[in-house]
Amino acid sequence: MQGFHQLPASGDILVITRSMKDVLLLSELGYPAVAPHGERVKIIDEIENLKKRFKNIILLFDNDEPGIEGAKILSDKYDIPMVYINPTEKAKDLSDYYRINSYSKTAQLVENLLCQKSEQSTHV
Question: Fewest beta carbons less than 10 Å away: which of 3, 19, 68, 104?
């Protein structure tokens, strides 16, 4: 997983996203993140490790069809909640959203998406 070795030992929220550019942006926003090498890559060993280290794990993949399908598969398989950017925002992923909007708008969007889901998450 991209970004795996840069993660803190533990934390409240971890984001699994689609690309290294989104991992870097999330890190800049204060959220640890990793990205598998593809939306359908098997990540069972890493997930078990991450579930022990982070209270909440949230999937934030692209809001296109492959991204939503890939997130849904991982969400169902590993019992991880998923979020995505509303397609009305005209941004496929977080880095697109940032490019279109400001840093502060991106930070607010991420906070809204992640905090809402982490409150609903049952991972301990």
Answer: 104
* Partners of 83 in the β-ladder: 60
Query: What does the alpha-carbon distance between residue 46 and residue 44 come to, in Å, rounded to a whole number?
Result: 6
Residue 110 corresponds to which tokens in the numbers above?
């991420």
3-state SS assignment for residue 55: strand
Which of 83, 80, 105 is CA-nearest to residue 25? Answer: 105
- What are the φ/ψ torsions at residue 65 (nearest 5 degrees)? -60, -50
| Token pair in block for residue 56 | 């909440």
Structural contact between residues 47 and 83, judged by C-beta atoms closer than 8 angstroms: no
Tell me the pTM.
0.87
- Give the distance from CA 95 to its chain's centroid: 12
Strand partners, 35: 2
Give the largest Cα separation in the chain, rounded: 36
1-36 tens-digit pLDDT: 889 999 999 999 999 998 999 999 999 999 999 998
